[in-house]
Amino acid sequence: MVDIPNRRLRVFRDPAPIPDGGAAYRNGQTFDAGESVAPLTAPATSVRVADLLP
What we know:
Shape: flat
Number of domains: 1
Largest sheet: 3 strands, antiparallel
Number of strands: 5
Oligomer: single chain
Strand order of the largest sheet: 1-2-3
Distance between the termini: 14 Å
């Protein structure tokens, strides 16, 4: 999720079912504009969070 007002990226991974029939993520991380993040399927490729922001 791109958090434009706070200039950061929130990444949620590892969804799991919960008892009420819904789902929740087991892992969440926040990356600030000065950081980079890499997709799980291409860990050698990174994206600067600042490049995702307007």
